[in-house]
Amino acid sequence: MKTTRLIASLLFVVPWALASAQEVARTPLPGTHPLIGVWRIDLPDMKCFEEYDVRADGTKHSQSGKERNESEFTISLAPSPKGFYKWVDKITKNNGQPDCSGHNTKVGHVALTYIRLHPNGQWLLLCEAEDMNSCFAEFYRKPQ
Questions:
Q1: For the domain that residue 62 is a member of, what is the CATH number?
Q2: How many domains does the chain have?
């Protein structure tokens, strides 16, 4: 199995399984929060990409393959002492189309992940825990 396909599988399956029972209280972020913006991962082996548009109002619009989602989230205002932001994200709308891996994320699905932001603010790692060994996807910030 190629690395990109493995990353894509983990990207779409692992985080969603970790937090399916959690509730999310939408949390607006200050306009200066470093995670606000459009983040993208390219999956060339799958001829696909995934994008997250993280908004200051506590919502996210995302696309992966033909799938389009909207969600509400809570993201820490500052990184933890270990350097990670905690992100809890709940899908509120979905167009019912397949994502890059052929799956569809159900409305109501909750994901718990941790984000490690590169010091330059242009890259982030998506992780299962506050541990660099648990990171499974690297996104870059799209220019605005």
A1: 2.40.128
A2: 1
**CB contact at 8 A, 54 and 27:** no
Within 13 Å of residue 125, how many CA atoms lie on the same side as its CB? 15
Cβ distance 99 to 105 under 8 Å?
A: yes
29/54 Cα distance (integer angstroms): 10
Joined together, the tokens standing for residue 133 give 């060994």
Q: Which residues fall within 8 angstroms of residue 62, CB to CB, at 6 or more apart?
A: 50, 51, 52, 53, 68, 69, 70, 71
Residue 129's domain spans which residues?
3-141
Q: What is the pLDDT of residues 28-80, one digit of tens each?
A: 999 999 999 999 999 999 999 999 999 999 999 999 999 999 999 999 999 99
CA distance to 115, 117, 137, per residue, from 80 (Å): 10, 12, 20
Q: Which two tokens stand for residue 112?
A: 């718990």
Find the largest Cα–Cα distance for the chain: 41
